[in-house]
Write a structure and sequence with these properties.
By secondary structure, this protein is an alpha+beta fold. The protein is built from 9 helices and 19 strands. The protein folds into 3 domains: 75 residues, RNA polymerase II/Efflux pump adaptor protein, barrel-sandwich hybrid domain (OB fold (Dihydrolipoamide Acetyltransferase, E2P)); 71 residues, Dihydrolipoamide Transferase; 217 residues, 2-Layer Sandwich (Chloramphenicol Acetyltransferase), CATH 3.30.559.10.
């Protein structure tokens, strides 16, 4: 009897997944442990593993289709065995071709492509024989893997003709276009749409802005990640009684220590950032004030024995919070190396579920983008989150004289069901003590 492969739950918040690409074709021999497909969840793109031996008899979902958890993806059995989609299970939500709708019409939340196409194209899996096309006006439908591959190859994907559902550009389209790269556009009209959006290459956050240029009125369908973020943030803000505590830290000692270490005392070539020290200091403060290292539960307050500090990473269509496990037991150098690795793989959507779940406290840092202070929304089930701004030089009073000092604003968002004002203040004071005496963080 054929074995049915269902869409598994690949993250704690996942409700649907997008089948980005099949790695095996119908009729291929499959062994246990072989990777069948690439699946995009609300947080990452992962490979789907087979736990059966046999032949891939049937693919129930085309590349680019959305599937609810538990819905059938494929069937594996003996060669020649007949199989149909099982009755009674949720059907795969593969996008269907529709006529172009007015820009004001709402986009269906089930579609995962980050950008709408001007005209819907019939679904197709086979690569188009003509991979290059005139530059697309407006926003482009492209899978995350195809976008990443195009950027690596320096390819203008707006001129690539998509062969996926609704004309979505998939990996095969980029590979085909790379073999026959487009010549520079000679007609002024081809470049006209881009001139409407002036570039500011000197902006440090330009790489983020370039991911979603708005050139005309449009409605962008929600990605799995953006829909999940929206749901969880509304849940957090409406069900958790937030309150906020702010403190300023003298970062002059930290700047001196960090500069000295990066000038020649770094270990294994790791250059330390302010955020590395903040992550370490948060773990130390959680040890000093363990009641903040907790979560609200319907049956009581859960206190965590381990300090697993997560940090927010901005990616194309949202953000994700990789976790540094046992942060208090690691050196600043280890934290720095691990944070850089997790951050890079988070942007590539290559994190495993265990790497972005299980955090007991979260840090959100916008200092590198010039934000001096802000308040963050708590990331359930944590009871608090720390918002970190940028360190600024300001006049301060020291020994009765006005001098130039460095100050860093830290804002703690607390769940009042778990953390009271005095407890939150105690945590911030412990955090400030560690940051103003950064040599303690190297022990």
């Amino acid at each position: 009897m054929a074995q049915i492969i269902d869409m598994p739950k690949l993250s704690d918040t996942m409700t649907v997944g997008t089948l980005v690409k099949w790695l095996k074709n119908e009729g291929d021999v499959v062994k246990s442990g072989d990777m069948l497909a690439e699946v995009e969840t609300d947080k990452a793109t992962m490979e789907l593993e087979s736990f059966f031996d046999g032949t891939l008899l049937k693919q129930f979902v085309p590349a680019g289709g959305q599937v609810e958890i538990g819905a059938p993806l494929a069937a594996i059995g003996k060669p020649g065995e007949k199989v149909d989609a099982p009755a009674g299970k949720p059907a795969a939500a593969a996008p269907a071709a529709k006529p172009a709708a007015p820009a004001s019409a709402p986009a269906p939340a089930a579609v995962t492509a980050p950008t709408p196409a001007p005209v819907a194209a019939p679904a197709a899996i086979a690569p188009s024989p003509s991979p290059l096309a005139p530059a697309t006006v407006g926003r482009v439908r492209i899978s995350p893997l195809a976008r990443k591959l195009a950027e690596e190859k320096g390819l203008d994907y707006s001129r690539v003709k998509g062969s996926g559902p609704h004309g979505r550009i998939v990996r095969e389209d980029i590979l085909a276009a790379a073999k026959n790269p487009p010549a520079p556009a000679s007609a002024p009209a081809a470049a006209a749409p881009k001139s409407a959006a002036p570039k500011a290459d000197t902006w440090p956050w330009r790489s983020v802005m370039d991911k979603s240029p708005v050139q005309a009125d449009s409605v962008a369908p929600l990605s799995n990640m953006r829909a999940t973020i929206a749901r969880r943030l509304v849940e957090s803000k409406t069900t958790i009684p937030h309150f906020y505590l702010e403190i300023e830290v003298d970062t002059a000692p930290l700047s001196t220590l960090r500069n000295n270490l990066n000038a020649g005392l770094t270990k294994d070539g790791v250059r330390l950032s302010v955020n590395d020290f903040v992550l370490k200091a948060c773990a130390a403060a959680l040890r000093a004030v363990p009641a903040v290292n907790s979560s609200w539960d319907a049956t009581g307050i859960k206190y965590h024995s381990a300090a697993h500090v997560s940090f927010a990473v901005a990616i194309d269509d949202g953000l994700i919070t990789p976790v540094i496990k046992d942060t208090d037991k690691k050196t600043v150098f280890q934290i720095s190396a691990e944070a850089k690795d997790l951050g890079k793989r988070a942007k590539d959507k290559k994190l495993a579920p265990a790497e972005f779940t299980g955090g007991t406290f979260c840090v959100s840092n916008l200092g590198m983008m010039g934000i001096t202070r802000f308040s963050a929304i708590i990331n359930p089930p944590n009871s608090a989150i720390l918002a970190v701004g940028t360190s600024v030089k300001v006049p301060v009073v020291k020994d009765g004289a006005i001098v130039i000092g460095e100050r860093l604003a830290l804002t703690l968002s607390c769940d009042h069901r778990v953390v009271d004002g005095a407890l939150g203040a105690k945590f911030l004071n412990a955090l400030r003590d560690h940051l103003e005496n950064p040599a303690l963080l190297l022990l």
